[in-house]
Every structure is written in C-alpha cells, then in structure tokens.
UniProtKB/TrEMBL annotation:
Record keywords, A-Z: Cell membrane, Membrane, Transmembrane, Transmembrane helix, Transport
Xref: SUPFAM superfamilies: Multidrug resistance efflux transporter EmrE
One of the protein's GO biological processes: xenobiotic detoxification by transmembrane export across the plasma membrane
GO cellular component terms, semicolon-separated: plasma membrane
Membrane topology, from the record: Multi-pass membrane protein
Protein family membership: Belongs to the drug/metabolite transporter (DMT) superfamily. Small multidrug resistance (SMR) (TC 2.A.7.1) family. Gdx/SugE subfamily.
Gene that produces this protein: sugE
Main location: membrane
Species the sequence originates in: Metapseudomonas resinovorans NBRC 106553
Compartment list: Cell membrane
Record's protein name: Guanidinium exporter
Recorded GO MF terms: transmembrane transporter activity
Lineage top rank: taxon: Bacteria
InterPro entries, per database record: EmrE-like, Small_drug/metabolite_transptr, Small_multidrug_res
Amino acid sequence: MAWIFLLVAAFFEVLFAMGMKYAEGFTRPWPSLLVVVAAVAGIWFLTLSMRVLPVSIAYPIWTAIGTLGTVLLGFLLLGEALTPSKLVSVGLIIVGVAGLR
C-alpha cells in the first residue's frame, strides 16, 4: 500500500508543478486553488507512504517522478523543448533513483 500512496503522492506533485504554471503567480483563482490542494495532497500521501518506506527511498522517488512527469507534460502540453541535454539529465535522474533503490 505504501507504494500506491507514493504513486498517488507523485501524481499530486506533477499536478502541483503544472498548476503553478497555469496559476500565473497566483493571479488566477481556480488554478491557484488547484496548486494548494495538490501540494497538501501530495505531501499527505508522501507522509502516508513514509510510514513504511524509508525517507531515503520515498522522497527521492517522489521528487523524481514529479520531475519526470513535469518534463513530459511540459513537452506535451506547453510545447517545451526536449533538448539532448534535457533528455540526458532525465536519464541521469532515473539512474540516480534506481541506484538508491
């Protein structure tokens, strides 16, 4: 169950990051509310996962999934470039988290 909580937490982490773009500096009410709710939910589910998982595993995986998801959605939804250096960096994140596991 801890891994499911961690995946849900990571989903909210991506939602939080993407929501910040759409909130435009907290000038748009609904996206701003989404940012706050996603941040609280993400941290709450992360905390639930840490009842079982060590912090040295749960937190890096949470941030890595959040980073990877944000890079992917930035590309798909916002038209951000996937440069070779960005792709190498994403690969290094994956290797780094796999090394922790």
